[in-house]
Amino acid sequence: MLNARGISVRFGTQRVLDGIDLSIPAGRFSALVGANGSGKTTLLNVLAQLVKPDSGSVSLGTDPLAGLSRRDIARRIGLLPQITGTPVGLTVGELVMQGRYPWQNWWRQWSDEDQRAVDAAVALTDIGHLLQRPLTELSGGQRQRCWIAMTLAQDTPVLLLDEPTTYLDIAHQVELLQLAADLATRGKTVVAVLHDLNQAACYADHLIMLRDGGIHAEGEPASVFTADNLEAVFGFRAHIIRDPHSGNPLCVPRTESAELELVSREARL
Ligand SMILES: Nc1ncnc2c1ncn2[C@@H]1O[C@H](COP(=O)(O)OP(=O)(O)OP(=O)(O)O)[C@@H](O)[C@H]1O
After folding, report:
1. What are the residue boundaries of the ABC transporter domain, all occurrences included (predicted)?
2. pTM to 2 decimals?
3. Residue with CA closest to ligand 1 atom 4
């Protein structure tokens, strides 16, 4: 269990996170959703100890993370940030190998275990055919899969993914979400910031809705993914319907034209 207690963060005069208490279930796939600017990235960065909160603490199980070295944290928590730049002069293979950095030191160089972790990450993200290519020559989606592979190669019990489906076509989005769900089934604790609410409700075991730097709702998607919560958090009205195949909740935005059509149809009856 990854626990955050009383987390508050200010940037200047702006309070971005406001006394957050959160218990992220171990071995589950949690999705973090909320409007732009609601504090999702800041919260992930606090969980990964990249942002020091003004108050509050994070622990993994019973172990507080504050005070651990960067290397020790990186052996426990892998973070895929929102990627904005591309390193020049690096091949895909070299990037993925960098995921093993926290496990190495001057007396322990590249090992069979490192190679196994890299091979597994490469296979899971289907980038074996790209290993010799410079990162700068790849499409945005291919590059995103390489970053994900690097994070997987780190082989941490906790994975924090900030908008991992960015740049991916729909088939690779679904693949990535299924991979996150599978990793959770195999015991990893996965937390992903997702903007596609239906994907979040469909793939995650646990949904966390952030609103103005606080937790508005959290729990199983079936109980959290309600029209009222979506309206409160995102300010839009939606119908919640069920996926006829899986039974998962899906939201359909209530557009003005659809509402008018409904009213006039009812008036005609
Ligand atoms: N380093 C920073 N310095 C100052 N303000 C910041 C910094 N990082 C984030 N903020 C502010 O904190 C608020 C929350 O930002 P954050 O990136 O956590 O939101 P988010 O929910 O991830 O947004 P998005 O969905 O747009 O990615 C925003 O108002 C943002 O401008």
Report:
1. 2-237
2. 0.90
3. 11
